[in-house]
Amino acid sequence: MQRLIMIVALIATALMLEGRSCIAGDPLTVASDFEGASVREVEVDEAIRSISFMPGGDPVRGWPCWWYFKINGITPGEAITLRLRGSTATVPKPGSPLQKPLAASWSMPAQATFSIDGQTWLHTGKGTRQDEWMIYTLKSEAASVFVAWGPPYTPTTAAKFVRAMSEKSPSAKAAELCRSRGDRPVPMLHVREGERTPKQRFSVWVQARQHAWESGSSWVAQGFAEWLLSDNADAAWLRQHAEIFIVPIMDVDNTATGNGGKDAQPQDHNRDWSAQPHWNEIIAAQRKVSDLIAAGRMDVFLDLHNPGPDDPTFFFTLPDDQLKEPMIGLRDRFIDLAYARISKIKPLIPMSNKPKVTGANYHPLWRQISANWVSLNGNPHTVSLCLETIWNSPSSTTEGYRAVGNNLAAAVREYLAERPERN
Ligand SMILES: [Zn+2]
Questions:
Q1: What is the percent of the chain with per-residue pLDDT over 70, rounded to a whole number?
Q2: Which of 270, 239, 206, 146 is nearest to 404 (CA)?
Q3: How many independent structural domains does the chain possess?
């Protein structure tokens, strides 16, 4: 009898313990020891199951607005709270950018992005602003979940994608633009099909992520490549009549380490298109683009970005008084074709059809901005544009960004088909 009571007591204790762990859950923990991760000042409040944090990143290596980390210990089905505030980091060097903390809005999308498997990225519901905080509610069906400012796109993602495209299509080659100063490979996709010699082809250069935090731009570049290598007859035309270079991530070092990249010391990548660039990616890209210009066939140059919070500006261009015809007319024709397609994407990508002019009034180093440098040093017929896809709309998802890339590639095909063929 005594023994039976003891067994019953043991079972009851076990049930109680089991019951308690169901109610309280495992402790929430945060991991950021992986490629592209960024977070700091993490505080977990177990009582209300909330995680407070700010973006990580060394401000010397660019604006600290990117955040990306993994949460463990979630009870599947429970709703936890993410409490985000802007980074307080500043750069101590006199005269450098970020003497004051960056405006918090750069790090605060209306909806946060999350993924259970690191492949499929979804939006949370809309966050709410409470004083300095942005509060998101996250309901996860798994014990671990990745959360981020927007859908991440790391150097590993770029390398895998470029390899997958080269395996899918004999006209696509996985190449390397260069190795970064941090000795990382910079993956590049090189596409051309058929017998035409390089001289008989148009050239198209597409690059993303000169600013590491702007992850959406890499998804646009991927969408461009996916359309280009699709079964679409127009895509085949483009592969056969052009030679296309696509670099999904220029600043691989800051992307890999979770730094923002924008306004990094000693030089922002997109202010580095000078006579003596600092970054290996710029040296290599500028050399290849210069070769295409020397051959008289730098036809379309596209530099992909994400803009300021809620800014619907899509194309950035030089003022007309800095350019000559036929460049101005060709640029406007390309913008019209691109806008006509991209503005029809469903769900809608908010965008303005009025380009922003980025001349001397925009930035003192305006001549060293990549798209401007290519316009100023290009062929008379070169179309060179910076393109900014909005990051703070319900369509700022992997699907939305890729749809922009698909339509951008189709616009390049439509534009080049109007140009005289090269013989
Ligand atoms: Zn940018």
A1: 94
A2: 206
A3: 2
